[in-house]
Amino acid sequence: MSKLNAALVLTLVSGLCCALPSPRAIAGSEAVGTAESRNAPEVSLPITRITLYRSGVASFERSGTVSGDATLNLRFDNAQVNDVLKSLVAADLSGNGTIRGVSYASNAPLARRLAAFGINLGDDPSMGTLLGRLRGAEVKIATANGTVTGTILGSEMREEASGNARKTIQVPFLNIVGKSGIHSVNLFEARTIELTDPELQSELTKALAAIAQQRREQSRSLDVSFTGKGDRKVALMYTHESPVWKASYRVLLGDDAKTRLSGWAIIENTTDEDWTDVQLSLVSGRPVSFTMDLQEPLFAYRPSVAVPSVGGMLPRLYEEEVDRLASAGSKDEKKVAGRQLSAAAAKSKSGDARNYGFADAPAAPAVDAAATGWAQLSSESMADSMASGASGTVTGEVFHYDVSTPTTIARQSSAMIPIVGADVKARRVSILSPGPSNQTRYPMRGMELTNSTDLQLLPGPVAVYDSGVYAGDSMIEQIGPGDSRLISYATDLEVPATTDESATSDIKRLRIVRGSFELRTNATQTTTYKLRNKDEKASRTVILEQMRLGGYKLANPSKPTSETGSLYRFEVELKPGESKEFKVVQETAGTSTLALNSYDDRSIVAWQQEGKASPQVLEAFREVAKRQSAIKSLERRIADLDAEWKRTSDDQNRTRENMRTIDRNSDLYARYMKKLGEQETQGEQIGAENIQSKEKLRSMQDDLAKYISELNVE
Questions:
Q1: Do 421 and 391 meet the contact criterion of CB atoms below 8 Å apart?
Q2: DSSP helix/strand/coil, 375
Q3: Does a structural domain hold residue 129?
Q4: What residues contact 665, with CB distance under 8 A and at least 6 apart?
Q5: 443-462 pLDDT tens trace
Q6: 110 and 171 inside one domain
């Protein structure tokens, strides 16, 4: 630490010790009520009711009696204050008083609060910068050469040689005006720097205290002022962020037909206040909830307008006119978007083993239930030991669990509260969900659970006990009264299963529509299940889950046992040691259009013999093929004529070239003349035939196109 910094620390510490203001003075005045309300005695209103939501908020109700003018002081974490300011409702239930208002300390940004002091420390200035801002203030600086007292003129940085003459460093100097003139003090050599103005020293002390207080402030207080006469009943209600309450269940399977279901609510009190004998409600709905910063002052941007002045005349430039009015929005205004808070809960599809994370692992070691004392555990004994601790009501679109007895949870503590305790219907099943083909798989051991209570069962984990022995874990989605769900809790290694997938497509009918083949096809998807019950003592009810193919209909069996939006479910009963094969067939009918030349005569004849195409279709196909064959023959003839005409033309050109170098009176020249005439006659004949053939071709093509376009044969 440099001498300068050490001196500054000593000076600041001495100032803080003698002039540190109270936290309330630092935060700003407490504001809003009359002198009577600020001087009113403080009262305490206990929490009487709490409603917890699965959207991450909780509603708190306080009620009690006040006498005359009174003030209720409430403390909240900083993160909770905005929610309270958004939701607080206060009422004087007697009608003989009023709510004066709610006051709380300003939460202006630290930089803005620091800027209000005589010394601005908001940007963490260096020593030279800080002293430069005190220009005009009187200071006393002690150095090794003595003490200098004077008024600050300004600060500057100078380059001076360091120990190595080749290098220079920046050295801060403070220029002060004293009685003997202007002095430049090397701040690196200053031992202490003292502000002689007590008010300025006090401002520095307060600014430093504000910085320290900002770090310590973890909670805020709100004062609710009541005014009136006599004893009165008052109440408050507000919401703020709270942990999502969770539900967990236990299912006790027995040898009898009865199955016991118990449900528990897991609740956390993360506040700094004990919940003592409060009425607790647990709500399944998710009301819209968002956060908005209401406690921080918001300052609107105002444009800066220059002071009117008369300047010299300048040449005027005329630009293209654009929008004249600039955006008048708030420059520094924060845009707050509502953000719906929702409890993030991973949902799993009923019966899908992949959604539960079970692996094909060996069964757990056997546990002697009698040795543990759980052998005597039955649905009756469980019912006697734990009854439902809550009643259910429906309000609007949400379901309430109202805990029947007052609840006490210490601050920063959690609790489990029984909310469900009833006998329900459960049927043991094994569930085989869709999976890879041609390999051995195992279904999941599970149950079909029917909610035979009057309560909504909310999503949560389920621990399953079978005859007093832990059998596995599962999950449930929300189950309404009377609804049933499949849940699985272990791998059933006694029932190996394989699946085989096969697909076929067959033409059902062939016809001609507007010159094209229209094929009516039937596609079939067959899934074959092979199941074996290796258990020689117990039967199995296996539920097969088959994916529903889009556009397909179930052909075999004619109806499923049940179905969902994406699955068919079929039940297969397996006796001890029995093996079975079960097929599921899904079909779809389709129509496709192909050109007439997509198939050959042999294929059409075969389909006609199989009854998939009529004789008229075959006759029409052959007529089209006949015409197309004639057109192709003519096209080949035209191609031959074109080639023959080209050869004749080439021969004429060679003859003419040869005649140029031969004597016109020679016999050879006469022979070439005769040959040239013959070639000319031949070319004319070829050209005439070519023209006629092309005209005929166009006519045949037009006739065929018309014939095909009008061709409709069943």
A1: no
A2: coil
A3: yes
A4: none
A5: 999 999 999 888 888 888 98
A6: yes
The residue range of the domain holding 407 is: 245-287+345-490
pTM of the model: 0.57
pLDDT of residue 704: 80
**Is the pLDDT confidence value at 389 over 80?**
no
| Tokens describing residue 569 | 């479910």
Same domain, 169 and 194: yes
pLDDT in tens, 564-605: 888 999 999 999 999 999 999 999 988 878 777 777 777 777
The label of the residue with tokens 């299912």 reads: 251
Q: How high is the pLDDT of residue 38?
A: 53
- Look up tokens 């929005």; give the residue: 329
Q: Are residues 171 and 113 in the same domain?
A: yes
Pairwise CA distance, residues 711 & 421, whole Å? 75
Please say whether the beta carbons of 594 and 517 come within 8 A: yes
Answer for the pair 380, 509: CB distance below 8 angstroms, yes or no: no
Percentage helix, strand, coil for the chain under 3-state DSSP, each rounded to 5: 25, 40, 35
Mean predicted lDDT score pLDDT of the chain: 77
Average pLDDT over residues 281-304: 77
Residue 387 covered by a domain: yes
Using N-to-C axis directions, what is the helix angle for 615-660 and 601-609, rounded to 10°? 170
The answer to whether residues 169 and 270 belong to one domain is: no
CB atoms within 10 A of CB 366: 7
Ordered DSSP codes for 351-364:
T-GGGTT----PPP
Do residues 655 and 675 touch, judged by C-beta distance below 8 A?
Answer: yes
Whether residue 361 lies inside any domain: the answer is yes
The runs of H, that is alpha helices, within 157-268 are 198-216
Domain end position, chosen among 490, 505, 534: 490
Last residue of a domain, one of 474, 490, 506: 490
Query: Which phi and psi (to 5°) does residue 39 adopt?
Result: -95, 0
Task: Give the pLDDT score at 256.
Answer: 60
389 plus 422 within the same structural domain: yes
**Does the structure show a pLDDT above 70 at 475?**
yes
Backbone angles phi, psi at 656, to 5 degrees: -65, -40
Confidence band of 26 (pLDDT split at 50, 70, 90) = very low
Count of other CB atoms within 10 angstroms of residue 162: 11
* Cα–Cα distance, 278 to 35 (Å, whole number): 35
The domain tally of the chain equals: 4
The mean pLDDT value for 200-208 works out to 84
In a domain, 99, yes or no: yes
Please give the pLDDT value at position 585: 95
Tokens 């005589």, residue located: 118
Same domain, 545 and 621: no
**Same domain for 702 and 619:** yes
8 Å CB contact between 123 and 136? no
Supply φ then ψ for residue 669, to 5 degrees: -65, -40
pLDDT computed for residue 324 by the predictor: 37
Going by pLDDT thresholds of 50, 70 and 90, the confidence category of residue 365 is very low
Instruction: Read off the pLDDT of each residue in 410-437 and give the average, rounded to a whole number.
Output: 88
The mean pLDDT of 283-309, rounded to a whole number, is 74
Identify any residues that bridge with 264 across adjacent strands, giving them in sequence order: 248, 418
pLDDT at position 109: 66
Measure the CA–CA gap between 4 and 142, rounded to whole angstroms.
Answer: 10
Angstrom distance (rounded) from CA 310 to CA 316: 16
| In a shared domain, residues 23 and 64 | yes
| HEC letters along 280-326 | EEEECCCCCCCCCCCCCCCCCCCCCCCCCCCCCCCCCCCCCCCCCCC
Residues 6 or more apart in contact with residue 349 via CB below 8 angstroms:
355
